[in-house]
Structures are given as structure tokens and as C-alpha cells.
Amino acid sequence: MFANVKAALQAELQGIRDAGLYKEERIITSHQGPVIDTTAQHEVLNFCANNYLGLSSHPEVTEAAIDVN
Q1: Residue in 69, 68, 25, 30 with CA at minimum distance from that of residue 51
Q2: What residues are paired with 36 via a beta bridge?
Q3: What would the pLDDT profile of 29-39 be if each residue is shown by its tens digit?
């Protein structure tokens, strides 16, 4: 089934790339905060995190996440 639409999806994605509208995701390589490091660049301002309380890097939160696994 996927084989039937694969070429059409690839063409659509290429059209989006050619139009300059494709957004590559960057992988965050540091703790989240107002300034982060990514695989593409260091010291990037981070406006997209849902971290308004500043808890994503809090030691108790990260330790609890480790304990869950």
C-alpha cells in the first residue's frame, strides 16, 4: 500500500524543500533553558520549549525521570 503513494509523497516533500518551506528538526544536545546547544549550532535562543517554570533541568525532575526507567 505504501509503495502506491511513496513516489507521490517524495515528490510533495521535494516541492516543499524546493520552495524553502521544509523545516529540519534540530536535536537539542544540552539541558533545556533559554539558551541551548543543538547538533547544528551552539548557544541558540530557545523560544519553543514548554518549560516556563524552568523544571525541565531541575535535578529532582531529571532524577525522577531516570528512576522511572
Answers
A1: 30
A2: 44
A3: 988 878 889 99
Q: Phi and psi for 5 in degrees, rounded to 5?
A: -110, -5
- Find out whether 49 and 57 touch, Cβ atoms under 8 Å: no
Radius of gyration of the chain (CA): 18
CA pair distance 11, 13, nearest whole angstrom: 5
**Would you give the DSSP letter of residue 30?**
S
Residue 51 CA from chain centroid, whole number: 14
Give the distance from CA 20 to its chain's centroid.
19
By CB neighbour count within 10 A (0-12 exposed, 13-18 middle, 19+ buried), where does 32 fall?
A: middle
Instruction: Write out the three cell numbers for 47.
Output: 523560544
Give the global pTM: 0.50
What three-state secondary structure class fits 25? Answer: coil
